[in-house]
Structures are given as C-alpha cells and as structure tokens.
Amino acid sequence: MSVIRCPICESEVSWHDCKETYYSTYNGQEYRRFECPNCDLHWWEPLKIVPEFYEGEGCLAYRLFHRDLRMELPEWCKPFFKHFPKTEVRGKLLDVGCGDGLFLKYARDMGFEIWGIDIDKKSIEIAKRRLGDENLYPMSLEEFYEFAKLKNLKFDVITFFEVLEHQDRPREFLKIVKDLLKDDGYIAGSVPNRNSIFVRFFNKYSCSDNPPHHFLRFSEKALERALKLSGFLEVEIYRLDFSLAGLFLYIEKKIFGNLDDFKAKLISRIERGALTVEEVAKISPRKALYLQVLRAFRNFSLLPFVPFYIKKLKGNGISLYFQAKK
Known about the structure:
By secondary structure, the protein is α/β, with parallel strands linked by helices. The protein is built from 14 helices and 13 strands. Helix content is 39%, strand content 21%. The strands form 3 sheets. It has a 7-stranded mixed β-sheet, sandwiched between helices. Strands 3-4-5-11 form a 4-stranded antiparallel β-sheet, with no helix packed on it. A two-stranded antiparallel sheet has the order 1-2. α6 runs parallel beside α7 (170-180) and α12 (277-283) runs antiparallel to α13 (285-302). The longest helix is centred in the C-terminal third of the chain and has 18 residues, at 285-302.
C-alpha cells in the first residue's frame, strides 16, 4: 500500500507520510496517523471500527453509561438547547449514538418525539430504563436505515454528539443521516476539537482520543468540509468554551503531573468496585462526601493559579458543536 485516500475528501496521501504511530493495548494493533493537506482531517489507519470496544468498556465513559451514573447533561450537548435556531421545529428526533439516553430526556422535555440508536446494547438497556420509551434500538446506523425504510420513517432532526469521530466510513455515515431526514430537516451534533489546547494537553494522559475509540480528528475546517461535501446547507460551527471545573484538573496536572493512578487506588480503597466519585455516591453517599471534600480542598489550593489560565477558556472547549440543514 503506497497511497491511501482521505476518508472525507478522498485526496491521496502517501503511506510514507505517516505523522505518528500508536500502539493500542486494547487490541494489540499498531495504528498510523495521517493528515489530509486538502480538507485538514487527521485520521488513523487501519481505519476499521471495533464494535465490541463499547460493550467491553474499553473506555471509562462506557462504564458510566452502563451503570446509569450520568446525571448532568454533557457540555457538548448543551449548545443544542442554546443555538438550535428553529424553535418551531419539533416532530421526530433521532439521536445516533444515544448512549444512556440522557440527551433524549432533555429533548423529550423540549417537545420532540424521541428515537435513539446505539451499537452498545448495554447502554440501550439503561436508556430504556431511564426513558421508559420503546423507540430505542441496539442497532448500527446501517441496520436502522433498513428498518426505517421498511417502516417508512423520516426524521425532522437527527443528532449525533461525539459520534462522527468514531466512524470508519464518515461520508457513508453522513449520507445515510441525510437520507433519513425529511426535506428541510436538520442535523446537530459535536466532535472533539482537535485544536483545543486543553484537548491536546489531556491527550498526553489519556488514550480516549486514539483508536480503536476515535479514528478521526477534526478542526473547524475539516468539519465544515465534511458537512458541505455531504450536501448539507447553512452549516454553523461553534467553538465551545472550556469549563471552569475542567480548568482545576488541568492546573493540577500541570503542577503535580498525572495523579490518576493514585486517585483510582484511593477510590477503590474507599469502595470496592467503584471508579469515580459518582459511582461511590451511588453506593455510599457518606464516602462520596469525603471525596467531594478532598476535591473542594484541591480546588481551593489551586485557586491562586486560576487567573493565569482563565483567558484560555474562551473557544478552547473540548468539542466543536455544529448544526446544518438538509
């Protein structure tokens, strides 16, 4: 293999132009990262999704999904309720990669008829328990597309938050999304912001933005190009701000380095089988209170450093939010 093609614009890139290699301890695969000089996408090869990664809890986020521990709407979902401009648009909303259904709960409260799909069966079980709704399916987008054709289903809005970066055939994914929309339907969603200084920093301590979890890395230019090449109109992209809560963790790592192993050991000593403060709270609120006090002490100790970084929060959030029209 001497030449490969960009999965967004199909520009040719030499196999020898690899910018980085990464070895995944999850599946023992070596991946190579490439950069498209045309559309600005960064992606990993071999570009092949590993479906069992999600149910197998290859990343901490899926453990939280499977234990029904998330209660607060993620930062990357919140812009939908702020920026989605069509207040008169309601009807059917399909959330692709709906996870535990938390976003769908808020969308239902907004007046949408909610539908959701996810390849992670465990997350769908949690979503059904949370929402008590029948329109939730453990399917891939391709499987649901065939199901929707049989049922003559079309949607007013399709959302996919933190999903596009997982795809091994992103143009086909976007084509199916477009085909599932009604005429003049809308899409909305988010992807990690490759150019965020905080994303680049935290990537040093986490493998969550690497394969077989994430295969694609988007800049604003790459995201806009992907949506427009797929035929979407009125494309809007918003750079989100980084959260103040996240800033304390950033400063902690800048000063003390990576304390994740120490924290994991501390929590596991407090409550066997738990991994986060939220998990401990489900099992033992009193012990979770102890951990929250420790966190508050940490934040108070780091407070003098906050003014040096506060200006960096603007536009440096971990995600890019987008919306567009068919």
